[in-house]
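re: ur msg from earlier - yeah i can do the zinc ion complex, just paste it... oh wait u already did. ok heres what im feeding in:
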Amino acid sequence: MTASRIIVSTNAVEGSARPPAAARQALTGCPWHDVKAMLREVGLRPTRQRMALGWILFGKGDRHITAEMLYEEASKAKVPVSLATVYNTLHQFTDVGLLRQVAVDGSKTYFDTNVSQHHHFFVEGENDLLDIPHSEVVVGKTPVAPEGYEIARIDVVVRLRRKAR
Ligand SMILES: [Zn+2]
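and the outut:
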């Protein structure tokens, strides 16, 4: 049995100054250099903390990570940051399109390093997110956005649980 929930994100149509989310295309293979170039391209100053967190985030391929998980990885890597800094940095990266936020429920927000269009399975109890290719979900009817808003994108989270034997 699966239950699904559809999250419709709306963005105010104010000038629509979203920078291209494809800032990660011209990677050279050196994570440190890549992160610096990535930050510059989206107009974020490559501070030591952003560099260190960016390196941890983007140096391991596409993944889904919570602020707490990143904080733990940073601590293990001896990167001196507070959880608040980790939160702020994740939100800054999201604002400039380097990350995508995936809200699974009220208490859990994942950040996705894969910013291309796709949906997610959420495995309940295991707190695991798995990608669903964009083409595998067809949304039949979308609501009309409130006055002054447009639909930014539609995220589908399909919740999974193990079958009872
Ligand atoms: Zn994903």
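cool cool. Strands lie at 2-12, 64-65, 100-105, 108-112, 118-123, 128-133, 149-160. ping me if u need the other ligands too
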